[in-house]
Design brief:
It contains three helices and seven strands; from the N terminus they run E-E-H-E-H-E-E-H-E-E. It has helices spanning 32-35, 45-56, 80-91, and strands at residues 9-14, 19-24, 37-44, 59-62, 70-76, 94-98, 101-105. The longest helix is centred in the middle third of the chain and has 12 residues, at 45-56. 14% of the residues are buried.
Protein backbone atom coordinates (compact mmCIF):
# COMPACT_ATOMS: atom_id res chain seq x y z
CA UNK A 1 0.00 0.00 0.00
CA UNK A 2 1.04 3.57 -0.52
CA UNK A 3 -0.34 6.99 0.31
CA UNK A 4 0.39 10.51 -0.85
CA UNK A 5 1.10 12.97 1.96
CA UNK A 6 0.59 16.70 1.72
CA UNK A 7 1.87 19.48 3.96
CA UNK A 8 0.60 19.07 7.50
CA UNK A 9 0.12 15.31 7.30
CA UNK A 10 2.02 12.30 8.57
CA UNK A 11 1.59 8.58 8.10
CA UNK A 12 1.47 5.90 10.76
CA UNK A 13 2.21 2.33 9.74
CA UNK A 14 0.74 -0.60 11.67
CA UNK A 15 3.19 -3.47 11.18
CA UNK A 16 0.79 -6.29 12.11
CA UNK A 17 -2.14 -5.20 9.95
CA UNK A 18 0.08 -3.51 7.33
CA UNK A 19 -2.30 -0.54 7.36
CA UNK A 20 -1.20 3.01 6.71
CA UNK A 21 -3.11 5.74 8.50
CA UNK A 22 -2.82 9.37 7.39
CA UNK A 23 -3.25 11.90 10.22
CA UNK A 24 -2.92 15.64 10.51
CA UNK A 25 0.39 16.74 11.99
CA UNK A 26 -0.17 18.82 15.13
CA UNK A 27 2.08 21.56 13.79
CA UNK A 28 4.85 22.07 11.24
CA UNK A 29 7.50 22.22 13.96
CA UNK A 30 6.71 19.07 15.90
CA UNK A 31 10.05 17.53 14.84
CA UNK A 32 12.10 20.69 15.43
CA UNK A 33 13.72 19.09 18.48
CA UNK A 34 15.27 16.55 16.12
CA UNK A 35 15.89 18.59 12.97
CA UNK A 36 16.86 21.90 14.57
CA UNK A 37 14.63 23.62 12.00
CA UNK A 38 11.74 25.92 12.85
CA UNK A 39 9.44 26.92 9.98
CA UNK A 40 6.78 29.58 10.21
CA UNK A 41 4.46 30.48 7.34
CA UNK A 42 1.84 33.09 8.23
CA UNK A 43 1.97 31.61 11.73
CA UNK A 44 0.04 33.54 14.40
CA UNK A 45 2.29 35.00 17.08
CA UNK A 46 0.73 32.87 19.82
CA UNK A 47 1.61 29.69 17.88
CA UNK A 48 5.16 31.00 17.33
CA UNK A 49 5.48 31.49 21.09
CA UNK A 50 4.19 27.97 21.75
CA UNK A 51 6.63 26.43 19.23
CA UNK A 52 9.58 28.40 20.63
CA UNK A 53 8.64 27.41 24.19
CA UNK A 54 8.58 23.72 23.27
CA UNK A 55 11.74 23.86 21.16
CA UNK A 56 13.90 25.76 23.67
CA UNK A 57 12.22 24.52 26.87
CA UNK A 58 11.60 28.06 28.14
CA UNK A 59 8.45 30.12 28.48
CA UNK A 60 7.85 32.53 25.61
CA UNK A 61 4.59 34.46 25.90
CA UNK A 62 2.90 37.30 24.07
CA UNK A 63 0.79 39.96 25.75
CA UNK A 64 -0.50 41.00 22.33
CA UNK A 65 -4.08 39.98 21.56
CA UNK A 66 -3.97 40.24 17.78
CA UNK A 67 -4.54 37.13 15.67
CA UNK A 68 -3.62 39.09 12.53
CA UNK A 69 -0.01 39.39 13.71
CA UNK A 70 1.78 36.54 11.91
CA UNK A 71 5.37 35.49 11.26
CA UNK A 72 6.89 33.96 8.16
CA UNK A 73 10.46 32.72 8.41
CA UNK A 74 12.75 29.71 8.56
CA UNK A 75 15.35 29.16 11.25
CA UNK A 76 17.92 26.39 11.11
CA UNK A 77 19.90 25.71 14.28
CA UNK A 78 19.47 29.35 15.35
CA UNK A 79 19.68 30.35 18.97
CA UNK A 80 16.60 31.61 20.77
CA UNK A 81 18.15 35.05 21.11
CA UNK A 82 18.71 35.30 17.33
CA UNK A 83 15.14 34.22 16.61
CA UNK A 84 13.74 36.70 19.13
CA UNK A 85 15.76 39.54 17.59
CA UNK A 86 14.35 38.57 14.19
CA UNK A 87 10.83 38.67 15.59
CA UNK A 88 11.46 42.07 17.18
CA UNK A 89 12.76 43.55 13.94
CA UNK A 90 10.28 41.88 11.60
CA UNK A 91 7.12 42.59 13.58
CA UNK A 92 8.29 45.82 15.28
CA UNK A 93 7.81 44.40 18.78
CA UNK A 94 9.72 44.43 22.05
CA UNK A 95 10.87 41.32 23.88
CA UNK A 96 11.96 41.36 27.49
CA UNK A 97 13.58 38.55 29.45
CA UNK A 98 12.25 38.10 32.97
CA UNK A 99 14.16 35.31 34.72
CA UNK A 100 13.46 32.17 32.62
CA UNK A 101 10.59 33.78 30.67
CA UNK A 102 10.46 35.92 27.53
CA UNK A 103 7.59 38.38 27.19
CA UNK A 104 6.63 39.89 23.82
CA UNK A 105 4.90 43.29 23.88
CA UNK A 106 4.08 46.13 21.48
Amino acid sequence: NSVMLTAGEQANYAHKSKDIEVVQTPDFNYLSWKTGILNFYDTPLNQVCEDLSKHFNVEVISTIDNNDLVLTGNFKNDSLSNILVSIELTLDLQIEQLENKYVITN
